[in-house]
Amino acid sequence: MVKEQAAGRVALLEDIWKSYGAVPVLKGVSLALEAGEVHALLGGNGAGKSSLMKIMSGVIPANSGRIEINGRALTHASPALAQDLGLYLVPQEAHILPNQTVLENICLGLRPSPRSLRPRVETLVAELAVAVDLDAQAASLEIAERQIVEILRGLVRDARVLILDEPTSALTPFETSALFERVRKLQGQGVGIFFISHKLREIREICSTISVLRDGVIVLSGPLDEYTDAEIVEAMSRVQLAADGGTAKAGRKVAQIGQPRLTVRGLSGEGFADIDLDVRAGEILGLAGVVGAGRTEFAETLFGLRKQSAGSVHLEGKELKSRSPRSCIDHGLVYLPEDRQQNGLFLEAPLYWNVSSYLIHRLPFFLRSGTERRIFDGFRDSMGIKCTGAGQSARGLSGGNQQKVLMAKCLSAGPKVLILDEPTRGVDVAARNDIYALIRTLAGKGVAIVLISSDFDEIEQLADRVQVMAFGRDGGQLSDAISVDAIARLAFGASEPNHA
Amino acid sequence: MLDLFARNRVVTLVLILTLAYAAIGAAAPGYLSGATLSTVLSSSLVLMLISLGTMVVILTRNIDVSSGSVLGLSAAVLGLLLNAGVGLPLAIVLCLLTGALAGAFNGLMVAYLGIPSIVATLGTLGLYRGIMLVMTGGRWIEDLPQDLKALSTNLGFGFSALTVVVVLLIVTLWLFLRKTRFGRFFYAVGDNKAAAHHLGVPVRRVQFAAFVAAGTCAALAGIVFAAQIGFIPNQAGNGIELKAIAVNVLGGVSLLGGTGSVAGVVAAVIFITSIDSALVFLKIPAYWNDFIAGALLLSVLLLDGRIRQLIERRIRARRYAIHDRAPVPDATSSTTRIAEASR
């Protein structure tokens, strides 16, 4: 039976229409997925990608159109039905039940009991070569581990159609290559996969077909090798983008880098020890490393969110002793956290509340919304935030625009030193380029920037100097020959003997 | 040892309960007797039923503050039917049906019409009490038939027919929540609604079912109430919903949904009821009851919170201590790291 299916079409979407209120997001989208095909799906912010995926997986209903999975129609919007038909959506932000164990999380909704599924899950964990403790409470999982739980959910369900929504955004390179191996194996078994990603390099590595969605319409579709990167990006954003991100950096360099702003000596805390770091005005320091290297803990300690156990922090020569987020902001040290949904945004609050939230201590006792709205409007124009107005709630914005709102919030505090933790995670190519341009402009204005990123391409493109953290320690510095390879060598340096 | 307390509220409660019993037993010899046990057991039944129903709702991250009124309304239905000459079995069935319907209306509003549960059940708290008063014309229902009161007579070891029913219900609910697929869904919905929906859990049906269960439990509590007291006052069940919520918190049911056990709630109900009986025995004036119960509730929660914080700090320290060691960078090491930290 499996072989019969392997030849055929596993998913078919015909003329899908969807609008929220009066705003149409999908205007007649048709897509087909063959067995054993890995189909890349790209699109900018608000192109309708996530709506399409949610419709396909039964989370929300379409206004009209037909969906067939494994030759059977998805008659009504129900995730249970879609899963019964053999489709599973691995969402970008993992859905976790914090009070249950990892195993229970993986097996929830399946008929056999978690205990009887355990051997199967263990096999999958071994095949994926990932590190998860099935009996741990899910609340204790890091972002990357949560993502792995979602991927395991899809695999244990024996899905014939898998939708992977940016599956690698929180994975280490090792985990990514193990995932790709697994994807290839599934491909061999006749599973069809929709692969959503913003990383063209990954798409080239794993996908055979590509479709690009823009403004609710498929604008490009066909075998991947027929298109160049430039064509794909152009289709997605309608604007020709500079092919080389490095030139802008080269032009800006040297002259503008000024006085030391932030000096950290021997800082130790939870998950890291003995870190030295210097950033000067106008400098972009890339803080690279793999997930779990202790970079976020370092940044949170710097910002006063966690207790330090040793070391000193000087801002413009003045020591910041007992730091709290409030005192850091007041001194001009501002942190943009990694997890937007959990730590960054007030999702229900209007956008202008979000933007003025770092300023709130400086605003008068009686708040005047006019002032706040003006501050927001200024940022909206300069950063190109797409929204209906200052009063819209942050929940409705796409990932890229949410990130811009957060950047605006940080900027409103007038930072001297800005720590950006994974500023482009889950952000599409066009918005990513906006954010890169913004970071460069800020550096040009003399702000000292610490850029934390697991995307070594990003560090290569932006950073003037690179500091690497590995296993909570200083992993080395790069100032001249900054390249992805050199960074990766340092980040994984200590682990090479084991993998040789 | 500490972990045992943090994981398991039941252990904490049982320990405190044992200590309290020992202390009271020393202060007032004769307290520790079969008669006391029997009193505590039978006077805990009403609160037990309301608390278990409320627990199911709280598990799904909702709240039900209407259960006191549901108790009153269904007890009134029972009393009026019985006094009109309807047979006991039929009256009991109709009474339970009234409770289920009242719960279903709550569930309809919360699960399908999207009204926040606190608002919806605050509304029905007044509404159901109002319907009861209209039905009884504001009068107490007295002269209930003897066969109803017989349900609460002692059959031996302090067990009445009603006690047996409640014990059976406790066992059934425990098995259902722990051992069945649908039972697990109640935890899932309260833990993370979006995730549950995404995984194909029928979120609305689960929420609806929780309210129906709570209503039915409240009706059963109404029957127990009527059988034990022998008449039905206007204010039957008034305020018991808040006591039930306090019991749930005491029993380790998180108001944020997703955690809690039947054992914890049962232990908490016994605990609260024991306080009342002990005060009577120690000849402390009855007007001290609320004060002492409130103070004890707060101290248990405070103690529990401190223990929890301590444990969390320790787990965190252990987790990062492993990071601080010399790098152990192969893929398997982080498995052991997580495993060790969670141990």
UniProtKB/TrEMBL annotation, chain A:
It is a peripheral membrane protein. Part of the ABC transporter complex LsrABCD involved in autoinducer 2 (AI-2) import. Responsible for energy coupling to the transport system. One of its GO terms (cellular component) is plasma membrane. It is found in: Cell inner membrane. CDD domains: ABC_Carb_Monos_I, ABC_Carb_Monos_II. This is Autoinducer 2 import ATP-binding protein LsrA. It comes from the Bacteria. It comes from Ensifer oleiphilus.
TrEMBL record, chain B:
This is Autoinducer 2 import system permease protein LsrC. One of its GO terms (molecular function) is transmembrane transporter activity. It comes from the Bacteria. It comes from Ensifer oleiphilus. It is a multi-pass membrane protein. NCBIfam families: PRK15432.1. The complex is composed of two ATP-binding proteins (LsrA), two transmembrane proteins (LsrC and LsrD) and a solute-binding protein (LsrB). One of its GO terms (cellular component) is plasma membrane. The chain crosses the membrane at residues 35-59, 71-104, 110-134, 155-177, 208-232, 244-272, 284-303. Keywords: Cell inner membrane, Cell membrane, Membrane, Transmembrane, Transmembrane helix, Transport. It is found in: Cell membrane.
